[in-house]
Records
---
Amino acid sequence: MGSSSSSSSPSLAAFAVIVLALVLSSAVLCNGGKTSVYVRKLEKTVDMPLDSDVFGLPSGYNVPQQVHITQGDHVGKAVIVSWVTEDEPGSSTVLYWSENSKQKKMAEGKVKTYKFYNYTSGYIHHCAIRNLEFNTKYYYMVGVGHTMRKFWFTTPPEVGPDVPYTFGLIGDLGQTFDSNSTLTHYEQNPRKGQTVLFVGDLSYADNYPNHDNVRWDSWARFVERSVAYQPWIWTAGNHEIDFAPEIGETKPFKPYTHRYHVPYRASKSTAPFWYSIKRASAYIIVLSSYSAYGMYTPQYQWLKEELPKVNRSETPWLIVLMHSPWYNSYSYHYMEGETMRVMYEPWFVQYKVDVVFAGHVHAYERSERVSNIAYNIVNGICIPVKNQSAPVYITIGDGGNIEGLATNMTEPQPAYSAYREASFGHAIFDIKNRTHAYYSWHRNHDGYAVEADSMWFFNRFWHPVDESATSQ
Ligand SMILES: *[C@@H]1O[C@H](CO)[C@@H](O)[C@H](O)[C@H]1NC(C)=O
Ligand SMILES: *[C@@H]1O[C@H](CO)[C@@H](O)[C@H](O)[C@H]1NC(C)=O
Ligand SMILES: *[C@@H]1O[C@H](CO)[C@@H](O)[C@H](O)[C@H]1NC(C)=O
Ligand SMILES: *[C@@H]1O[C@H](CO)[C@@H](O)[C@H](O)[C@H]1NC(C)=O
Ligand SMILES: *[C@@H]1O[C@H](CO)[C@@H](O)[C@H](O)[C@H]1NC(C)=O
Ligand SMILES: *[C@@H]1O[C@H](CO)[C@@H](O)[C@H](O)[C@H]1NC(C)=O
Ligand SMILES: [Fe+2]
């Protein structure tokens, strides 16, 4: 408040203070959406023991294990198949054939190993199979020459504006008993996710002494039952960093990058931590909270050139994945995403991103469509405002982790927060056509079909109508 106005006109100043206080209280302090009354029974979140059924191996010499697939190109006509053999390198060949043709084809991959502390990895194979037909079921086999195992996947429909497609959302999964419950709920959900958008923090191996990388292996065996049959789209979280300068590991992400390959070159990215894919009617941009993102950095430069390339006539749905959320009203990791928000949020509003999924906070939260881009350090306009061009921000870091649930929330609930709850679970983003997508969040303590939170998403390009009334 300027001192000249308060001395020349005290009543006006007092009035201004009252008005300001009212505006502030309604904009910031008043209760926002819903803080769920559901209180989860408190149990310890502990890792499943290494001899658990979920970590079991089929028998056989040099048997392939930890089989996983992800999209292998920009449009969905390629798949990267990865697996590990323990006894010897064996073959990096993938045999594959479509359901309609019995003629087997072959693709040749590569094998590598790495060391971390006193751990030496098995033989890690990665093989891209290309030129697949859209919308086709393929069988594939790995382990040629020794013990063979057979799996299958279905390629997505050709990219196009009205192609229905169902994505699952999982974050911060880990390998606890809760993680197993989350994965089971995802598998049993009648909405049938076709591809998982994974928002970071995979194994939590770094929670163990020497980041015991045996827990990277066990995690990959645990999730094989899903990720060998449908692609998981990977985002790097802080538990993928594995920074260990005391043993000379000064480059972050060593175990993660050896084990998980992504098609980053197909989107002209220069590093596997930020990239994009098209899948059916969605354009998915993956960002890295733990790589440089400031002005002039490779990630900044890439995203700046990437966003104008999105053609909403071809892919109406623009989805962004990152690990650290920008809008988070829990006390945990509070404001960790703030610096990246300051850099990129104006672009998200300008390019009308439909939804941003993040993890990191071990709980669930959904925002209103808000923008906080007006603030420029001198103008003092620092309150998020509703804006129909802005994305909905969803925190889905409730996969199971090992550190327990984030229960403390900032109070009162800020106006931008539409729904929040500290429970484990997963979500489904079910695209119907270019205008409509149905979103639901499923908590582990309910039956498989129960929706604890849901809303209809209206596409920001084709149908930019306020949809907040459609949420439960
Ligand atoms: C690595 O070191 C840890 C702790 O000293 C030990 O428990 C573990 O068995 C070692 N692992 C290997 C593969 O040598
Ligand atoms: C994990 O979940 C699966 C499927 O529900 C179940 O068969 C298995 O016994 C569970 N394992 C553990 C260790 O809880
Ligand atoms: C955008 O996609 C549509 C539909 O595929 C196509 O007709 C159009 O030419 C594309 N626009 C640009 C600028 O590439
Ligand atoms: C939403 O944000 C954009 C970009 O800042 C701005 O041009 C537009 O006026 C805003 N809309 C509303 C309704 O505030
Ligand atoms: C959570 O709240 C409790 C009680 O207010 C407090 O003791 C604790 O330090 C808080 N934890 C965090 C992480 O904020
Ligand atoms: C798009 O899907 C919604 C929800 O299923 C439906 O109500 C709407 O009619 C569909 N639009 C078109 C053009 O089919
Ligand atoms: Fe995290």
---
Amino acid sequence: MRILDIRHLTVPIESEMANAYISFASMDVSVLAIVTDQVRDGEPVIGFGFNSNGRYAQPGILDHRIIPRVLGAEPDSLIDPDTGHLAPDRIWHAAMINEKPGGHGDRAVAVGILDMAAWDLAAKLAGRPVQHLMAERAASGTGTPLERVWVYAAGGYYYPDRGTAALLDELRGYLDLGYRTVKLKIGGAPLAEDLARIEAVLAMLPDGADLAVDANGRFDTATAITYAEALRDLPLRWYEEPVDPLDYQALSEVAEVYPGPLATGENLLSRQEAVNLVRYGGLRPDRDVLQMDSALSYGFTEYDRTLAALAEHGWSPGRCVPHGGHQFNLAIAAACGLAGAESYPGIFEPFGGFADADPVVDGYVTLPQVPGIGLEQKSSLVPVLDRLRDR
Ligand SMILES: [Mg+2]
């Protein structure tokens, strides 16, 4: 069993929206294929991966460091002797040879793309849905994956020329799609305006639905605390990324004045950064939410280690709700018993969203029962995957 080629494409996911920190007008994604010499059902076996939104495509690091190392590795060193198959952890270690600790940044994104493809490949080689393979093989796997995963709809971005009526229409649309929790961006407007947006949404939500808010790391400590005091008596699901993602002191000061759940972690790119967050961020393992995203932070191979490290610090997988809105994190949530996963209905297409045949029902979504991640079960993604397949 051999890897024949590793290919990638850069694909735009441009959009006119913005959060408190960035515009998404020039955002793009790397999509990668690991092509093997194996055939299943008459088709060559290819594993596919991509990065989440919020970071950019990684053509430089993939071409200069990551792909040459994997293609240059002794082929048998990538094979698990027990299964005889190409193994994600072995591919991961080949990709990371001669990389120093720390300095994660875009390297973590590039390896995350490769690792998603390696898990898709491993599951296709095994003929198993990836959530089953992970649940059975990973240290943090539960043995049997969840049949359905809680998901919430992240939206409520700031768009040029869109007012509160359009915002309410957008969030109502998510409820109509079956979501029960929606999320709104804050911090891109003055506090009074943000409060008016939040209160308009709360007034619109039916019984059984709730709202989270996300500041995208925008605030300094004083502003984050001013917002915390303004938000603390509102029935919010959580208050997300009030301060810079690496400012654990500031986060702990916000936690002192905000009794409700805080959420953060999407901009942490390694196990060590997640450990530092729970050591020093003042977060509370009985209520706060950790949002590290495998597809931005060295993949599931690293996330599995992160979950083990979090457990040593008293944090359960039931406090984790990964950022990203893609099928890989959905599978990880099912395999490891996470609380849920983010979703971006209708935005960041075609990478956001789940398989066509798995609608959201009452806030939960099922997973495709096909070999691999099931990326081919999302019709809008198929033309992108085909561009890599047919070269
Ligand atoms: Mg966020």
